[in-house]
Amino acid sequence: MNMPDVNEILGGLKGFQRDAVEHIVDRLHRAPDSSGRFLVADETGLGKSVIARGVIASTIAELQNADHINRIDVVYICSSTDLAKQNLRRLNVTGDPHLGVTSRLTMLALETRRFTSDASLLRKKVNLVSFTPGTSFEMGWQTGSQEERQLLHVLLNGMAIVDATAERASALFFQGGVASVDRFQAGIANMRTALGSGPDPVIQGAFTAAIHESGLQEQFELAREQLRGLDVCPPELRREVNHLTARLRGVLAAAGVESLEPDLVILDEFQRFRHLIDPKSGSAASELAHHLFNYPAAKVLLLSATPYKPYTTVAGDNEDDHYRDFMTTLEFLAGGDGEALERIRNGFRNYRQAVIAGSDGAVEAAELRKSLLPFMSRSERPRLEEGRDLLVRRVVSDVPTPEDLRSYSALQAFARAIDSPVSLDYWKSIPYFASFMEGYRPGERAREQIESGVATPELTSTIGQLRAIQPQAVRNYEQLDYANARLRAFAGETIEKGWWKLLWIPPSMPYLSPGEVYSPFSDGSVTKRLIFSAWSSVPTSVASLLSYEAERRMIEGSALSENTADARRAVSSRLDYVTRDGRAASMSTLMLFWPHPTLAEVGDPLTLLDSDTELMLADDARRRADDRIRSLAGASEQAQPDSVWEAFFSWPGSWPEGVHRRADAAAFWLAGRGGGSKNEENDSGDALKEHARLALTQAGTPRWQEELGVLAIHSPGNIAYRALARICDEVDQELRTSLWRAAARLANGIRSLFNRMDVQFLLDKIYGHHQPYWRSVLQYCADGNLQSVLDEYCFQLKLELAGSGVDANALSQIADRAVEALTLRTSRYNARAADEKFSKIPITVRFALRYGTAVGDAESVRAPEVRNAFNSPFWPFILASTSVGQEGIDFHWWSHSIVHWNLPSNPVDFEQREGRVNRFGGHAVRKNVAVAHGRAALAAVRPGEHPWQNTFDAAVDRPELGEFSPWWIYPGAARVERMIVHFPLSREDAQYERLRDSLTLYRMMLGQPRQEDMMELLKQRGVAEGQVAQLDLRPPRRH
């Protein structure tokens, strides 16, 4: 573990971020009147987690010489495991890849041994532990995970088996949903192995004492005795067993808290679990959390752009919730300082009275700032202005079709038959509601009645009349009507414009003129779309229908006519490594995806470009590369080889210098994760090794061949090598080997993309069958400027994962992140047929995906993978979600468009939703910076420089925007897009106007009771935002 270099970490922050860090550290550690608690309420997208990183580094430095502690524990609490995975890496300031622990309080007995290891005389051990409230503080009646129950078994029964029948009875007690008690006992054995010498003694002691004192020990032993000799838990005991298990989990969580010695507790997006900070809530979860907050000398840092219940209308929730929430938060931050709280309350009252009386409130705002700054700060970027930074697009759908209206009538008949209303908004929002009504009361009631045999003839008849997806139509790849006016309008913006032909988003800064496929999209209009809806079925229905139509168009005209798993498996992959009679059958695939450092340098587009402002044609670049190759090869004296692959591998430098030329090593690196070889005869897995052996035996003599130029420029292997090489500051011998390995893995990820069934059919459709498939792959890479795209993507990954320097470990992480995006597992969503069984209709989804579902299901578990893929230039191009739980999640790398499928209920939600894409170095910012400075930066780039770093370095020409430019704001044609799709003459027109007007005034409502009354009064008086002094909570300026 390395001690963090605080100056280096703080030096990487922007001025307003460093001001915040130093103010927070001063308040938490040095101020004599400190409450030990602070809130960072910076506007969404300004890097609160980056500020937290600076606070962690400074805290470690402050505590290294403190005598009262022997280790430094940082506890990070956030609303979801996906947010934890995103931010733990940012918060890790030590460089130790194993530092962060994402756990549950109930499972700390497995981790605490690590907490005290690795300390030395010169430094204290640093621990970074992450929890989510739903799995660590909320026990309820839940029986928890099987690992938790296995740990409870060990804590209650010991590390050794003393009484076999008691052991089995206890296993039966804790079996839960595990299929068999034998399987659960096998898990117990694994748990004992994982615990080594035993559970953490602090946790064991605290747990044992608590269950004795509470009587839980006796209750458990009594239940265990009742289970002796049984094979299953009797139903009459199940409720008691579940209740006891939940209580035991609660005690174990409390014991876990005892094992922690928190020095800094960070609550990220805490408004999602604000009850934890309210001791008056009376909940066990709050009491448990306060054990952490009140640990001697522990500091607490809250992070939230909306640290209170968002502004609501009279029609929404209780109008005083905002005021109560904010005052509860301030009470927590003040830590019992009644005088400070009274000053704050008086400050808000004085400010309100001054503004209502017609004053600008400047004096009162300054006094309020002085009262609040000891406990909180907030930085805001310059406002998004319509027409400058914000593009509002109100897309009005066509009038619903007669079939749409008939489907609404059928839904109402179904609702009457099932005696469960179907909202008009369901029909307006959810395409084919009958196929996606799982989880909604009408659908659940209908299924229950049908399965139990009590469905009425009327219900059966109305189900048959519902508009639903037909299984046979999907099976036959027939075109489906979008069945929804909103979806038709949205599809007109994406699918119908030909987005299905694009395998990646066009680059923000292309090096070459786009080819046939990408030229229609060279206007910079393409950006990924992030859809937010109020209804949980919208993400599934929209993603299913758009993905189905994209795939249908890609395979249309191919030999595949049946949409079944068997038919898909029958399609041959064209980029596998194949052997026949033990010999490599074709070397074209290996040639495409083998990084060749020498040819990569020869074919680097950045060294082929002219200095003028026009984009170079791909053919011109190829001719220049050909000329270089001829010159280097002495082509007049060299006979052209029989095949292009022989020429490719004959060039010197195809293998990292200083590394033994081993076919098995090459095959291992080129296979990436999971291989990807195929043997026609015995599928032995040795095919790739045989290809690599043949490649490495070629003579190291430069020879010209007419297709070497296009391979040097556009082969995925060379593209991957250059993209990764550009983010390295210096490439020594050791890093050069790591670079080749990482490039080989990344190239293999690209191979998996072009090896997909739908992509093969797409390239056939675009380029025809007259040329080998590998040439179509090269042509597509040229047409789509894949080098520009990967350079841009790797630059973003470097900013995220590597900071200032790229070593072998960072290169590996960057390549792995890109490969994970390229190889995202295919999902299948289930629609339902409107038949007597509501039969499942599996639909393959790639082009569009949903994000976030019920906690614990497969889609929830893979949310980080989906987010990673969306934050890449590759599919999915559309991500659909509900608003719930997305605070703090980044979606901005390749998207600057938010689609409000349903309008939010309050203006704060507009900013929260749009804050997902209005963030540091976002897609819109990169587009605008590239348009302004890209061509000049490309012309001036030198070896060892990155074109994107040069472009941002040049973008210092907007001083009026301060330190937010260029990384957060840079004016240009690309803007954050607020897209609202609604029906003609809809009431949503007026609803949007009200929300838009509220946006200009709601920021003045912070800490005010009866917000809507105050806003209405200011509107009536014609008070504009600029006429009233705004509450300035920026930290004191130091830089």
TrEMBL record:
Span of the signal peptide: none
Pfam families the record matches: Helicase_C
GO molecular function, one term: helicase activity
InterPro entries in the record: Helicase_ATP-bd (IPR014001), Helicase_C-like (IPR001650), P-loop_NTPase (IPR027417)
Occurrences of domain Helicase ATP-binding (ranges): 9-333
Transcription regulation keyword on record: no
Tagged with keyword Hydrolase: yes
Keyword list, A-Z: ATP-binding, Helicase, Hydrolase, Nucleotide-binding
Protein name: Helicase
Organism the protein comes from: Mycolicibacterium parafortuitum
